[in-house]
């Protein structure tokens, strides 16, 4: 039995054999950890005043641990991937050479000992330089004076996360080396293992969207949370993010983190971050399974496997099917998305891709063009697998789009209307600072789960009926009909009736069904705007629901630095109000939105708008964070004729909302009209309309144009359609004109325009 001393000598010899990698690892980690940290500290603190120094220290206390594990450092992130792969390949590449395999296996060492000699050698090649570089970076942080004991503890945790992330790549690459007999195929196998779970996740989430009109991924599903721990890629990001920002609040995490790993994990699977204990436990289990599996395969691996594509030929057909089916579907999605998500292209390209992939994989197996289709049965299984999945989706075999749960099986429901977010603006949709509340979660918010859900259920029933009839096709036919009438010269008649028909137009909604069993199901539907307004009218009878809906209830009065008023002149004016008057005005506006008929937000025209100035908070320039001293303006607090409380208080404060533009204030008007030809374009061709422009300076004509000017076309669900004529009005004393659309009433005739 080999003694401990000789065993350690073998490890030292293995490291000496890979001396170039040790040097590369030391240089890379020194640059990526220590030097990059020093440069960032110097760049951020060199020109900071004494008053701003404390804030910068708070920033670095939050982000500094992320510099040590790649969560806030893209270069280190890449270095972890690179070094993890190199340490595994250089340590076990002898398995891919028959001469080297015979030599190593002739040594008086068991396979288990040989495995751990190479394993520990590669680990030390990374770990020693990494710990040294991290220690130097921590000392640099101490030298700059912002370190505290909690920050130091988080730094140790961050380094642990970086080590675990390295091990994730290291173990995965070792496993790939055991499964293959060539370095090239080993690298391909490692990449496949690393991304395979993510590809499956993307397919599960995205492929149905091209086939099911009501498809919605949902939120918080068990399988989505489980996915984070079954695929190396999202777990890799989870390790880095959780260990770098442990004990940092969610607000601070959102304020300070602009990290590659955070967005990578969100891109792959937008699930909530898991707790540190859960992530560390999952990482430990995952790493142990990979290591034990690699060791087991090494002990079972035949020596003659060197030089072959796969170490275990019996696995070839299974690997071929597992790789070709999801890859072909991904290629189909990629090509289909280039053609507006056409399912026929997805089907065609997926079938073609799986045939080509089967041939490519067989070529990799045999390196012989004559054997491209050697595995006939596995190729047939792959083709049938792709075709079967596409058939299930294309023909909706399980009735996904027409599914509607029994009403008595539901505990509650919630409703989200996507078009409303073009009307409402919430603080977090304008600023990334989470000092302000986020926009309401109308689907998952606890208060939005409606117990008396009959109106929402009927709306969902209508959506199911539309899906069964093919709402998208119906909408397309309506659009083609409208285009034909426009091109036939009947545009004025059509546009005159669009306002009354707007409630028949379809909008997108998302419904959440909360079953009594505890599960939740999500669906997307298209329903008419009129039906949505009917449902909203009932829901908004509850004051609590209105407070969720209207952005004014998300504004913190203490953060508001100013209130602006905009009327028909489109010149936002800061109101000269005391803090008490400002608060009273916003309270009056709240009272108005609590009393307004929801239908008026769609059918009536706003006459003005209030907006508020809110501090920007934390901003980013690259990786550098700073506390902005500027404000952003949050608008969308529309005023209507029925808002008596707000309008009366504005009058009291000396501000009268102007409804019309005084012709005396106008220097000139430029009218622009879109002109459609009488002949419809050929099928499949796009017709670009002509435009006609004219400058108006005559006072009578200006007055006629001003009588048609409207404040805005924004509505709650469906925006009003412009009449085809717009006006650029240059006010006296202004350098830039203001753009307006004109109402459909008494438009300038084509003859006048010419």
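Q: What amino acid sequence fits the structure above?
A:
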């Amino acid at each position: 039995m080999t003694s401990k001393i000789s065993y350690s000598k073998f490890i030292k010899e293995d490291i000496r054999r890979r001396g170039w990698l040790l040097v590369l690892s030391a240089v890379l980690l020194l640059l990526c950890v220590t030097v990059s940290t020093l440069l960032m500290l110097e760049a951020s603190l060199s020109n900071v005043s004494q008053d701003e120094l404390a804030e910068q220290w708070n920033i670095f206390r939050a982000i500094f641990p992320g510099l040590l594990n790649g969560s806030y450092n893209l270069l280190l992130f890449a270095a972890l991937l690179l070094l993890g792969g190199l340490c595994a390949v250089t340590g076990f590449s002898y398995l891919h050479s028959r001469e080297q395999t015979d030599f190593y296996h002739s040594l008086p060492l068991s396979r288990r000992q040989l495995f751990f000699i190479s394993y520990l050698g590669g680990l030390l090649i990374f770990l020693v330089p990494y710990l040294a570089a991290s220690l130097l970076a921590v000392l640099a942080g101490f030298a700059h004076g912002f370190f505290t004991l909690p920050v130091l503890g988080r730094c140790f945790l961050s380094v642990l996360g970086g080590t675990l992330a390295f091990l994730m790549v290291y173990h995965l690459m070792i496993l790939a080396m055991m499964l293959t007999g060539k370095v090239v195929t080993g690298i391909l196998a490692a990449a496949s293992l690393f991304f395979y779970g993510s590809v499956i996740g993307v397919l599960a989430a995205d492929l149905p969207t091209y086939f099911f009109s009501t498809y919605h991924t949902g939120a918080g599903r068990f399988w989505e949370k489980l996915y984070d721990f079954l695929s190396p890629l999202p777990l890799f990001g989870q390790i880095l993010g959780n260990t770098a920002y442990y004990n940092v609040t969610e607000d601070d995490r959102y304020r300070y983190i602009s990290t590659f790993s955070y967005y990578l994990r969100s891109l792959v699977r937008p699930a909530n971050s898991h707790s540190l204990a859960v992530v560390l436990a999952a990482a430990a289990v995952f790493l142990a399974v990979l290591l034990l599996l690699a060791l087991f395969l090494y002990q079972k691996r035949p020596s003659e496997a060197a030089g072959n594509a796969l170490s275990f030929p019996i696995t070839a057909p299974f690997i071929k099917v597992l790789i070709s089916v999801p890859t072909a579907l991904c290629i189909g999605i990629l090509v289909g998305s280039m053609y507006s998500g056409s399912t026929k292209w997805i089907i065609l390209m997926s079938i073609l891709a799986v045939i080509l992939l089967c041939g490519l994989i067989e070529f990799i197996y045999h390196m012989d063009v004559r054997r491209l289709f050697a595995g006939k049965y596995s190729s047939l299984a792959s083709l049938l697998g792709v075709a079967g999945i596409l058939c299930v989706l294309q023909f909706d075999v399980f009735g996904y789009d027409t599914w509607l749960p029994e009403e008595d099986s539901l505990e509650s429901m919630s409703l989200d209307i996507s078009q409303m977010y073009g009307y409402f603006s919430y603080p977090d949709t304008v600023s990334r600072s989470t000092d302000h509340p986020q926009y309401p979660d109308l689907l998952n918010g606890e208060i939005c789960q409606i117990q008396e859900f009959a109106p929402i259920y009927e709306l969902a029933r209508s959506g199911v009926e539309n899906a069964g009839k093919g709402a998208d096709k119906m909408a397309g036919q309506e659009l083609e009909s409208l285009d034909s009438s426009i091109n036939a010269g009947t545009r004025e008649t059509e546009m005159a009736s669009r306002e009354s028909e707007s409630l028949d137009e379809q909008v997108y909604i998302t419904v959440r069904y909360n079953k009594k069993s505890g599960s939740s199901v999500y669906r997307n539907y298209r329903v008419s705007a009129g039906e949505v307004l009917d449902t909203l009218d009932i829901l908004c009878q509850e004051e609590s629901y209105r407070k969720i809906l209207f952005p004014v209830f998300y504004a913190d009065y203490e953060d508001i630095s100013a209130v602006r008023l905009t009327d028909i002149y489109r010149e936002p004016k800061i109101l000269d109000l005391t803090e008490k008057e400002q608060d009273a005005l916003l309270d009056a506006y709240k009272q108005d939105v609590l009393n307004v008929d929801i239908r008026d937000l769609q059918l009536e025209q706003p006459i003005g708008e209030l907006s508020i100035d809110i501090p920007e908070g934390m901003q980013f320039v690259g990786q550098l964070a700073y506390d902005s001293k500027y404000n952003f303006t949050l608008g969308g607090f529309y005023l209507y004729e029925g808002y008596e409380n707000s309008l009366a208080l504005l009058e009291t404060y000396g501000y009268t909302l102007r409804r019309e533009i005084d012709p005396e204030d106008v220097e000139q008007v430029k009218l622009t009209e879109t002109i459609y030809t009488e002949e419809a374009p050929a099928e499949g061709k796009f017709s670009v309309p002509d435009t006609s422009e004219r400058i108006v300076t005559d006072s009578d004509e200006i007055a006629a144009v001003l009588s048609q000017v409207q404040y805005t076309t924004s509505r709650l669900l469906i925006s009003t359609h412009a009449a085809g004529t717009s006006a650029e009005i240059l006010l006296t004393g202004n350098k830039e004109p203001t753009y307006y659309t004109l109402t459909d009433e008494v438009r300038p005739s084509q003859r006048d325009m010419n």
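Q: And what stands out in the fold?
A: The CA atoms of residues 456 and 535 lie 7 Å apart.
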